[in-house]
Amino acid sequence: MKYFSTRGADQLLSFEETVLAGLAPDGGLYIPEHVPSLPDNWQTAWKDFSFVDLSVAVLSLYISPEEISQSELRALVEKSYSTFRHPDVTPLKELTDKTYVLELFHGPTFAFKDVALQLLGNLFEFFLKRRNASKAPGEQPERLTVVGATSGDTGSAAIYGLRNKANISIFILHPKGRVSPIQEAQMTTVTDANVHNLAVKGTFDDCQDIVKSLFADREFNTAHRLGAVNSINWARILAQTVYYFLSYFHLRRQIPDADEIEIQYVVPTGNFGDILAGYYAKRMGLPIGRLGVATNANDILARFWKSGAYEKVDSSAEASVPAAGGASDGKQATDASGVRETLSPAMDILVSSNFERLLWYLAFEGAAQGDDVASRKKAASATIADWMSKVKSDGRVQVPVAVLELARRDFFAERVSDEETLETIKYYFESDAHYIADPHTAVGLCAARRVAAQNPPQTHQVVLSTAHPAKFSEAVTRALQGSPSFNFERDVLPPEFKGLLERERRVIDVEAAQVDLVKKVIEKYAAPTASEVGTSV
Ligand SMILES: *Cc1c(COP(=O)(O)O)cnc(C)c1O
C-alpha cells in the first residue's frame, strides 16, 4: 500500500515515509492509494477479536508486510495498548436500550488522543531504530525533534506517546498559567530526559506562531529534523479506525436480533480526525449508518452540512441581527483568530484540518464517472488544491450541490451550545444510567438525542466518549452542582489524579514569546543524553 497527497496524486510514498512526513510538501494530506476492502469472512473471523487482534487485522490492510511484518506489527500494537487501564481498551457502555457510549479515555492521559498517539510514538521509534541499525559505525544516527504547541489536551497525549523513546526528543510549548491545573500537571510531571515542557509567557496563539516559524525555518528544521504529531498524521487516523470495528462487534453481541439493527455513530468533532476514522471503516465495508458530526459553537462543519459552504466566518450570521435577549452562544468570547471559547475546548477550532481528506473522496466520487480511476484521482486532487487555495485566500469555498448531497448521504451534522452541553451532562447523571459525561462527550450525546426522534426504530446509537470527566472538572461541576447526590471526589476523580498536583515537575520557563528563545532551548536539549535535565521549578 502506498500513499499520496490530497493535492497531487502523482507521487507515491511508503507508509513509513507518510508517517514520518505528516503533512505533504504541497500542503495536502496523505491518503491511501485505495481504500482496502474487508476480507470475505471478516464478520465471522474477526467477531471475537480483542482490540489488539483487530488492530493487527485492520492495520495490516494499510501497511505492506515488507514494511512492517505481522509479528512486528503485533508487537508494536501490544506495546501501545498495554498502557491502557481497561481490558477492552475502548469499552462500550450502555446508557439506554438504544444509546451506548464508546469510552476512548482509558489511556495514560484520560483522553481519546492516547489511542492514536501511543501507537504513533512506537511507530516513530520503530522506524528510527531500523534506519539507525543499518548505519555504518560512527555515522550520525537519525533523530527526530518533535515540536508542538498545546492549549492543554494534545500536549499531554503527545508527551505520553513519546516519553522515553529512543532517538526522539519532544518539546511542547504551552502558554504559562493558561492551561488548566490538571492538564499542566499531566504534562510537567513527566520527567523523562527526552521530554521538555516550555512554559511560554504569552497566549496559545503565540505558542502556535512560534512553532509555525520553527517549521518554516528551513535551516533550523533540517538541522534538528523537526517532526509534528498533529492530528493530520495518517497513522493517527488509521489507529482510530479500530474501535469502530471493536464496538460494532461488542454491540452486536449484546443485541439478540443484531441483524435487524442499524448502528449510527455520533462523534464530538473538532479537527475531524476521530469521525474520519469511522468514515474509512464504513468505506472499507463496515455496515454502519450515517455518521453524526457533533460540533460546539465552533460550527464550521455543521454549517457546511447545511449550506455546502466551507467558511471560517459564518457569513449568514454576520448579516443577521442577534435575537432579543441574545443566544448564549452569540456572546461567547472569541480569541484573536476568531475561535470561540467553549466548555469543550478540545473542539475549539476555526477550520477542521482532516476535513480535506473527506472532501477529496467527495470530489473523487463527483469526478466524471466515465474516466479511468487514475484520471479521476488526478481530477479530485486538482479540485482539492483549488478549493483549499480558495479557503486560504477568501476564507471560504462553496462546493457544488452534488458534492453536498454526497456528504449528506454518509453524514449528518449538529451544533450544540454550552447551555445544552451542561443540560446534557445533568440529564444523563440523573437518568437511570447515572452516567457522568465530560463536556465533549456531552456534545455528542446531545446531538444524538436531537436526531434520535427522526431515526428509524431499529437504530442504535453509539456516541464516542472522548475524555474522562475529571479532566474537565469545571464544566462537570457546574452542570451537577445542583444535584444533591453528586460528589466530585467520590464520583469522578480517578485515583491516578490524586496527588498529581503535588508531584515533582520539570518545566523550562520561556520569559517572552520569542522564536529565538525557544530555538535556544531546543538547541540546548535536543538529542539528550541521560545526564541532561531541564530546569526544575
Ligand atoms: C481532540 C479531541 C476531540 C476532537 O477530535 P477530532 O479528531 O479533532 O475531531 C474531541 N474531544 C476531545 C476530548 C479531544 O481531545
From TrEMBL:
GO MF annotations in UniProt: pyridoxal phosphate binding; threonine synthase activity
Entries under InterPro entries matching the protein: Ser/Thr_deHydtase_PyrdxlP-BS (IPR000634), Thr_synth_N (IPR029144), Thr_synth_N_sf (IPR037158), Thr_synthase-like (IPR004450), Threonine_Synthase (IPR051166), TrpB-like_PALP (IPR001926), TrpB-like_PALP_sf (IPR036052)
Protein keywords: Amino-acid biosynthesis, Lyase, Pyridoxal phosphate, Threonine biosynthesis
E.C. code: 4.2.3.1
Segments forming domain Tryptophan synthase beta chain-like PALP: 98-321
Cited SUPFAM superfamilies: Tryptophan synthase beta subunit-like PLP-dependent enzymes (SSF53686)
Annotated GO biological process: threonine biosynthetic process
Top EC group: lyase
Pathway connected to this protein: Amino-acid biosynthesis; L-threonine biosynthesis; L-threonine from L-aspartate: step 5/5
Pfam families in the record: PALP (PF00291), THR4_C (PF24857), Thr_synth_N (PF14821)
Cofactor: pyridoxal 5'-phosphate
Modified residues (N6-(pyridoxal phosphate)lysine): K113
Domain of life, source organism: Eukaryota
Threonine synthase N-terminal domain: residues covered: 2-81
Span of the signal peptide: none
Family of this protein: Belongs to the threonine synthase family.
Protein name as annotated: threonine synthase
